[in-house]
Design a protein that fits this description.
It contains nine helices and 13 strands. The protein is α/β, with parallel strands linked by helices. The chain has a seven-stranded mixed sheet with strand order 8-9-7-10-13-12-11. A six-stranded parallel sheet has the order 2-1-3-4-6-5, sandwiched between helices. Helix 1 packs across helix 9, helix 4 crosses helix 9 and helix 5 runs parallel beside helix 7.
Protein backbone atom coordinates (compact mmCIF):
# COMPACT_ATOMS: atom_id res chain seq x y z
CA UNK A 1 0.00 0.00 0.00
CA UNK A 2 1.08 3.59 -0.55
CA UNK A 3 2.56 5.15 2.58
CA UNK A 4 2.00 8.89 2.09
CA UNK A 5 -0.72 9.49 -0.45
CA UNK A 6 -3.62 7.10 -1.08
CA UNK A 7 -3.07 5.29 -4.37
CA UNK A 8 -5.75 4.59 -6.97
CA UNK A 9 -5.83 2.26 -9.98
CA UNK A 10 -8.55 2.52 -12.64
CA UNK A 11 -9.11 -0.96 -14.06
CA UNK A 12 -10.53 -0.17 -17.50
CA UNK A 13 -9.29 3.39 -17.74
CA UNK A 14 -9.46 3.45 -21.55
CA UNK A 15 -13.28 3.57 -21.60
CA UNK A 16 -15.43 6.70 -21.46
CA UNK A 17 -16.07 6.56 -17.71
CA UNK A 18 -12.48 5.57 -16.93
CA UNK A 19 -11.08 8.44 -18.97
CA UNK A 20 -13.45 10.85 -17.24
CA UNK A 21 -12.39 9.62 -13.80
CA UNK A 22 -8.72 9.82 -14.69
CA UNK A 23 -9.09 13.38 -15.98
CA UNK A 24 -10.74 14.43 -12.73
CA UNK A 25 -8.20 12.63 -10.53
CA UNK A 26 -5.29 14.25 -12.34
CA UNK A 27 -6.63 17.57 -11.04
CA UNK A 28 -7.13 16.26 -7.50
CA UNK A 29 -4.18 16.76 -5.13
CA UNK A 30 -3.26 14.14 -2.55
CA UNK A 31 -3.83 11.03 -4.70
CA UNK A 32 -1.22 8.84 -6.38
CA UNK A 33 -2.78 7.65 -9.63
CA UNK A 34 -1.33 4.37 -10.92
CA UNK A 35 -1.66 2.75 -14.36
CA UNK A 36 -0.64 -0.35 -16.24
CA UNK A 37 1.01 -0.29 -19.63
CA UNK A 38 -1.50 -0.96 -22.41
CA UNK A 39 -0.05 -4.42 -23.02
CA UNK A 40 -0.56 -5.37 -19.35
CA UNK A 41 -4.19 -4.33 -18.95
CA UNK A 42 -5.50 -7.86 -19.53
CA UNK A 43 -2.60 -9.56 -17.73
CA UNK A 44 -4.10 -11.20 -14.64
CA UNK A 45 -0.83 -11.25 -12.74
CA UNK A 46 -0.10 -7.58 -13.49
CA UNK A 47 -3.59 -6.55 -12.42
CA UNK A 48 -3.29 -8.59 -9.23
CA UNK A 49 0.04 -6.95 -8.37
CA UNK A 50 -1.47 -3.55 -9.01
CA UNK A 51 -4.37 -4.32 -6.69
CA UNK A 52 -1.91 -5.21 -3.92
CA UNK A 53 -0.06 -1.94 -4.49
CA UNK A 54 -3.14 0.29 -4.30
CA UNK A 55 -5.52 1.53 -1.66
CA UNK A 56 -8.51 1.71 -3.99
CA UNK A 57 -9.36 0.22 -7.38
CA UNK A 58 -12.07 1.69 -9.63
CA UNK A 59 -13.68 -0.93 -11.87
CA UNK A 60 -14.65 0.59 -15.23
CA UNK A 61 -15.37 -2.76 -16.85
CA UNK A 62 -18.28 -4.69 -18.38
CA UNK A 63 -20.38 -6.47 -15.77
CA UNK A 64 -18.84 -9.93 -16.15
CA UNK A 65 -15.31 -8.53 -16.13
CA UNK A 66 -16.15 -6.50 -13.02
CA UNK A 67 -17.34 -9.64 -11.26
CA UNK A 68 -14.11 -11.40 -12.22
CA UNK A 69 -12.08 -8.48 -10.85
CA UNK A 70 -13.94 -8.68 -7.54
CA UNK A 71 -13.13 -12.39 -7.31
CA UNK A 72 -9.48 -11.56 -8.03
CA UNK A 73 -9.44 -8.94 -5.28
CA UNK A 74 -11.02 -11.45 -2.92
CA UNK A 75 -7.97 -13.70 -3.24
CA UNK A 76 -5.74 -11.01 -1.71
CA UNK A 77 -7.05 -11.25 1.84
CA UNK A 78 -5.78 -8.38 4.00
CA UNK A 79 -3.97 -6.91 0.97
CA UNK A 80 -7.21 -6.39 -0.96
CA UNK A 81 -7.91 -2.76 -1.91
CA UNK A 82 -11.18 -0.94 -1.53
CA UNK A 83 -13.34 -1.35 -4.63
CA UNK A 84 -15.50 1.19 -6.43
CA UNK A 85 -17.49 -0.49 -9.20
CA UNK A 86 -18.80 1.67 -12.03
CA UNK A 87 -20.56 -1.26 -13.73
CA UNK A 88 -24.11 -2.50 -13.15
CA UNK A 89 -22.91 -5.76 -11.60
CA UNK A 90 -23.25 -4.99 -7.88
CA UNK A 91 -25.68 -2.09 -7.53
CA UNK A 92 -28.42 -4.04 -5.75
CA UNK A 93 -26.06 -6.50 -4.04
CA UNK A 94 -26.56 -6.23 -0.25
CA UNK A 95 -22.83 -6.68 0.31
CA UNK A 96 -22.14 -3.45 -1.56
CA UNK A 97 -22.89 0.12 -0.50
CA UNK A 98 -24.81 2.20 -3.03
CA UNK A 99 -22.80 5.26 -4.01
CA UNK A 100 -25.45 7.98 -4.02
CA UNK A 101 -24.33 10.13 -1.07
CA UNK A 102 -27.36 12.44 -1.17
CA UNK A 103 -30.01 9.72 -0.96
CA UNK A 104 -29.96 9.49 2.87
CA UNK A 105 -28.42 11.51 5.72
CA UNK A 106 -26.14 8.64 6.74
CA UNK A 107 -25.16 7.59 3.21
CA UNK A 108 -21.89 9.55 3.11
CA UNK A 109 -20.70 7.89 6.31
CA UNK A 110 -21.77 4.47 5.01
CA UNK A 111 -19.82 5.04 1.81
CA UNK A 112 -16.80 6.26 3.76
CA UNK A 113 -16.82 3.12 5.94
CA UNK A 114 -17.37 0.66 3.09
CA UNK A 115 -14.74 -1.38 1.28
CA UNK A 116 -17.08 -2.07 -1.66
CA UNK A 117 -19.14 0.72 -3.23
CA UNK A 118 -21.30 0.49 -6.36
CA UNK A 119 -21.43 3.70 -8.39
CA UNK A 120 -25.01 4.56 -9.47
CA UNK A 121 -26.22 4.56 -13.05
CA UNK A 122 -26.90 7.86 -14.78
CA UNK A 123 -30.65 7.34 -15.33
CA UNK A 124 -31.16 6.00 -11.77
CA UNK A 125 -29.39 9.03 -10.30
CA UNK A 126 -32.05 11.27 -11.80
CA UNK A 127 -35.00 8.97 -11.09
CA UNK A 128 -34.03 8.10 -7.52
CA UNK A 129 -33.15 11.72 -6.83
CA UNK A 130 -36.70 12.72 -7.75
CA UNK A 131 -38.71 9.83 -6.33
CA UNK A 132 -37.09 8.73 -3.08
CA UNK A 133 -37.71 11.95 -1.08
CA UNK A 134 -41.38 12.06 -2.12
CA UNK A 135 -41.93 8.42 -1.19
CA UNK A 136 -40.13 8.91 2.14
CA UNK A 137 -42.35 11.91 2.88
CA UNK A 138 -45.56 10.01 2.06
CA UNK A 139 -46.52 12.24 -0.87
CA UNK A 140 -46.00 9.46 -3.41
CA UNK A 141 -47.20 5.90 -2.64
CA UNK A 142 -44.53 3.23 -3.20
CA UNK A 143 -47.00 1.28 -5.36
CA UNK A 144 -47.89 4.25 -7.58
CA UNK A 145 -47.74 3.32 -11.31
CA UNK A 146 -44.60 5.26 -12.16
CA UNK A 147 -43.62 5.97 -15.76
CA UNK A 148 -40.11 7.29 -16.40
CA UNK A 149 -38.93 8.67 -19.73
CA UNK A 150 -35.42 9.95 -20.32
CA UNK A 151 -33.08 11.22 -22.98
CA UNK A 152 -29.29 11.01 -22.84
CA UNK A 153 -26.40 12.15 -24.94
CA UNK A 154 -24.86 9.42 -27.07
CA UNK A 155 -21.70 9.19 -24.92
CA UNK A 156 -23.69 7.06 -22.49
CA UNK A 157 -23.99 4.29 -25.08
CA UNK A 158 -20.34 3.30 -25.11
CA UNK A 159 -17.72 3.17 -27.81
CA UNK A 160 -19.85 1.74 -30.62
CA UNK A 161 -22.60 4.34 -30.20
CA UNK A 162 -20.07 7.16 -29.92
CA UNK A 163 -18.44 6.00 -33.15
CA UNK A 164 -21.81 5.72 -34.88
CA UNK A 165 -22.74 9.29 -34.00
CA UNK A 166 -19.37 10.94 -34.51
CA UNK A 167 -18.32 9.07 -37.65
CA UNK A 168 -21.56 8.20 -39.41
CA UNK A 169 -23.81 10.95 -38.09
CA UNK A 170 -26.19 8.76 -36.09
CA UNK A 171 -29.97 9.27 -35.77
CA UNK A 172 -31.28 12.59 -34.50
CA UNK A 173 -33.29 10.76 -31.84
CA UNK A 174 -33.70 7.09 -30.99
CA UNK A 175 -35.82 5.23 -28.46
CA UNK A 176 -34.34 2.01 -27.14
CA UNK A 177 -34.94 -0.57 -24.42
CA UNK A 178 -38.47 -1.10 -25.71
CA UNK A 179 -38.48 -4.66 -24.40
CA UNK A 180 -38.99 -2.90 -21.03
CA UNK A 181 -36.17 -4.86 -19.38
CA UNK A 182 -33.56 -2.12 -19.10
CA UNK A 183 -30.78 -3.05 -16.66
CA UNK A 184 -31.28 0.12 -14.62
CA UNK A 185 -34.87 -0.69 -13.62
CA UNK A 186 -34.06 -2.93 -10.60
CA UNK A 187 -31.74 -0.24 -9.24
CA UNK A 188 -34.38 2.48 -9.62
CA UNK A 189 -37.12 0.35 -8.07
CA UNK A 190 -35.02 -0.71 -5.10
CA UNK A 191 -33.38 2.56 -4.09
CA UNK A 192 -36.32 4.82 -4.88
CA UNK A 193 -38.36 2.68 -2.47
CA UNK A 194 -40.92 1.53 -5.03
CA UNK A 195 -42.89 -1.66 -4.51
CA UNK A 196 -44.25 -1.64 -8.07
CA UNK A 197 -41.93 -1.97 -11.04
CA UNK A 198 -41.81 1.32 -13.00
CA UNK A 199 -42.13 1.54 -16.77
CA UNK A 200 -38.90 3.02 -18.08
CA UNK A 201 -38.32 4.17 -21.67
CA UNK A 202 -34.87 5.65 -22.37
CA UNK A 203 -33.75 7.42 -25.51
CA UNK A 204 -30.64 8.90 -27.10
CA UNK A 205 -30.31 12.24 -28.87
CA UNK A 206 -27.68 13.39 -31.35
CA UNK A 207 -25.67 15.35 -28.77
CA UNK A 208 -22.60 14.07 -26.94
CA UNK A 209 -23.55 14.46 -23.28
CA UNK A 210 -26.31 15.71 -21.02
CA UNK A 211 -29.48 14.09 -19.70
CA UNK A 212 -33.11 14.73 -18.76
CA UNK A 213 -35.17 12.26 -16.69
CA UNK A 214 -38.94 12.83 -16.50
CA UNK A 215 -41.69 11.42 -14.24
CA UNK A 216 -45.29 12.58 -14.93
CA UNK A 217 -47.86 12.58 -12.10
CA UNK A 218 -51.62 12.94 -11.76
CA UNK A 219 -51.77 14.96 -8.54
CA UNK A 220 -55.35 13.99 -7.68
CA UNK A 221 -54.40 10.30 -7.82
CA UNK A 222 -51.95 10.79 -4.95
CA UNK A 223 -53.35 10.15 -1.44
CA UNK A 224 -52.72 13.62 0.02
CA UNK A 225 -53.46 15.40 -3.28
CA UNK A 226 -50.34 17.60 -3.09
CA UNK A 227 -49.73 20.75 -5.06
CA UNK A 228 -46.67 21.27 -7.18
CA UNK A 229 -45.39 23.58 -4.44
CA UNK A 230 -45.73 20.75 -1.91
CA UNK A 231 -43.61 18.46 -4.09
CA UNK A 232 -41.04 21.16 -4.70
CA UNK A 233 -40.76 22.07 -1.03
CA UNK A 234 -40.34 18.41 -0.03
CA UNK A 235 -37.47 18.02 -2.47
CA UNK A 236 -35.93 21.31 -1.35
CA UNK A 237 -36.07 20.31 2.32
CA UNK A 238 -34.56 16.90 1.59
CA UNK A 239 -31.58 18.29 -0.32
CA UNK A 240 -31.13 21.55 1.57
CA UNK A 241 -27.42 22.24 1.97
CA UNK A 242 -26.27 19.69 -0.60
CA UNK A 243 -23.22 20.69 -2.63
CA UNK A 244 -24.21 18.71 -5.71
CA UNK A 245 -28.04 18.52 -5.76
CA UNK A 246 -30.23 21.61 -6.20
CA UNK A 247 -33.98 22.07 -6.52
CA UNK A 248 -34.60 24.73 -9.17
CA UNK A 249 -37.75 26.81 -9.84
CA UNK A 250 -39.38 26.10 -13.16
CA UNK A 251 -38.55 28.46 -16.01
CA UNK A 252 -41.23 30.86 -17.22
CA UNK A 253 -40.77 29.79 -20.84
CA UNK A 254 -41.62 26.17 -19.99
CA UNK A 255 -38.50 24.85 -21.69
CA UNK A 256 -35.56 22.76 -20.54
CA UNK A 257 -32.58 21.50 -22.55
CA UNK A 258 -30.30 18.63 -21.52
CA UNK A 259 -26.79 20.07 -21.97
CA UNK A 260 -26.72 22.95 -19.47
CA UNK A 261 -24.88 20.97 -16.77
CA UNK A 262 -22.29 19.40 -19.05
CA UNK A 263 -18.81 19.14 -17.53
CA UNK A 264 -20.18 19.63 -14.02
CA UNK A 265 -21.01 17.20 -11.21
CA UNK A 266 -24.37 18.84 -10.47
CA UNK A 267 -27.90 17.41 -10.39
CA UNK A 268 -30.83 19.79 -10.83
CA UNK A 269 -34.38 18.80 -9.87
CA UNK A 270 -37.52 20.51 -11.15
CA UNK A 271 -41.26 20.29 -10.54
CA UNK A 272 -43.47 21.65 -13.30
CA UNK A 273 -47.14 21.73 -12.33
CA UNK A 274 -50.43 22.81 -13.89
CA UNK A 275 -52.71 23.26 -10.89
CA UNK A 276 -55.80 23.83 -13.01
CA UNK A 277 -55.32 20.43 -14.67
CA UNK A 278 -53.80 18.85 -11.52
CA UNK A 279 -50.92 17.55 -13.60
CA UNK A 280 -47.22 17.66 -12.73
CA UNK A 281 -43.97 16.46 -14.21
CA UNK A 282 -40.81 15.88 -12.19
CA UNK A 283 -37.58 16.46 -14.12
CA UNK A 284 -33.94 15.76 -13.29
CA UNK A 285 -31.14 17.31 -15.31
CA UNK A 286 -27.52 16.15 -15.13
CA UNK A 287 -24.44 15.39 -17.18
CA UNK A 288 -24.51 11.65 -17.85
CA UNK A 289 -20.69 11.72 -17.72
CA UNK A 290 -20.58 13.92 -14.60
CA UNK A 291 -22.96 13.24 -11.72
CA UNK A 292 -24.18 10.34 -13.87
CA UNK A 293 -20.80 8.56 -14.05
CA UNK A 294 -17.25 9.88 -13.59
CA UNK A 295 -18.14 12.80 -11.33
CA UNK A 296 -20.14 10.55 -9.03
CA UNK A 297 -17.25 8.06 -8.92
CA UNK A 298 -14.79 10.74 -7.81
CA UNK A 299 -17.28 11.97 -5.19
CA UNK A 300 -17.49 8.42 -3.80
CA UNK A 301 -13.74 7.91 -4.07
CA UNK A 302 -13.10 11.02 -1.99
CA UNK A 303 -15.42 9.71 0.72
CA UNK A 304 -13.86 6.23 0.66
CA UNK A 305 -10.34 7.66 1.00
CA UNK A 306 -11.28 10.07 3.79
CA UNK A 307 -10.78 13.18 1.66
CA UNK A 308 -14.38 14.35 2.14
CA UNK A 309 -16.87 14.14 5.00
CA UNK A 310 -19.99 15.62 3.39
CA UNK A 311 -22.00 14.95 0.21
Amino acid sequence: MASNQPSVFIDGEAGTTGLGIRKRLELLPGIALRSLLSGQRKDLSARRDMMVACDLVVLCLPDDAAREAVVLAGTLGADAPKLLDASTAHRTDPEWTYGFPEMAPDQPSRIAASRKVANPGCYPTGAIGLLRPLIKAGLLPPDYPITITAVSGYSGGGRSMITAHESAGGPAFELYGLGLEHKHVPEIEFFAGLTRRPIFTPSVGHFRQGMLVLVPLYLDDLPVRPTGADLRETLHTFYNGSEHVRVVPEREDGKLEPEALNDTDKLELYVWANEARRHAVLIARLDNLGKGASGAAVQNLRLMLGLDTAP
